[in-house]
Amino acid sequence: MDIGIIGIGLMGKAFVERYLSQGYIVNVFNRTHDNVKDLAESGVTICTTAEELINLSSTIILMLSNAEAINSLLPFDDQDDKQEALQGKTILQMATISPSQSKEIGEAITSHGGDYLEAPVLGSIPEAKTGTLIIMAGGSKDVFEQALPALQILSTAPRYIGETGSAAALKLAMNQLIASLTAGFSLSLGYAKENGVDTDLFMETLRESALYAKTYDKKLQK
């Protein structure tokens, strides 16, 4: 079993740790080499280019910052030595991009003979390390089922949402809700503290109410 991961930030490193713990052969590439130097002794293969990683891996996870980074790294040009680089590869796009960007990237990958699935996640590093992320998948149902073994390493129950773009839209909807909840929480907490309300009492009252969301405790120290 092998997995390639392009984009080794904090979440990417958590993915590396999780797949290694489950017996996978892990190949990695990151645009900034300093981010992966500390992985050299963990048993991963550190690739010098994205194309090298694609050649070595049957399934490739993208955890890049944006669609522009994805387009700059994947071999989408028509040079003879690159046209078949994606042939037979499964690309799992797990970062947060827009539905239209996901569709464009998916079309480019499939036109080069690869399979594409958008699979953005809810959760953070602790959930990635324990395999309890919420994964929302969009694309071909056949590709989703093919990718399930790799997705189930990171999530106990990956969700199939629908066609390409649907999971990206759901992820952005969730992010908007997180932002709204965090802004409202910080405003209420700030108002309470300004008027002499103890933070612990504020949180105890909030946790007992129908207003409570887990994200409040996750954001409290910040």
Topology, pairings included?
Blueprint (H helix, E strand, L loop, with lengths): L1 E5 L3 H12 L3 E5 L15 E2 L3 H7 L2 E4 L4 H7 L16 E4 L5 H13 L3 E4 L2 E2 L2 H6 L3 E6 L1 H11 L7 E4 L3 H29 L4 H9 L6 H7 L2
Parallel strand pairs: 1-2, 1-4, 2-3, 4-5, 5-6, 8-9
Antiparallel strand pairs: 6-8, 7-8
- On the 0 to 100 scale, the average pLDDT is 95
**Biggest beta sheet attributes:** 9 strands, mixed
The secondary-structure element order is EHEEHEHEHEEHEHEHHH
Decide which structural class fits the backbone.
alpha/beta
Spans of at least 5 consecutive residues whose pLDDT stays below 50 are: none
Spatial shape: elongated
> What's the helical proportion of residues?
40-55%
Q: Based on DSSP secondary structure assignment, what is the total number of beta strands?
A: 9
Q: Radius of gyration from the CA trace?
A: 20 Å
DSSP helix count? 9
Kindly estimate the percentage of residues that lie in beta strands according to DSSP: 15-25%
Gap from first CA to last CA? 39 Å
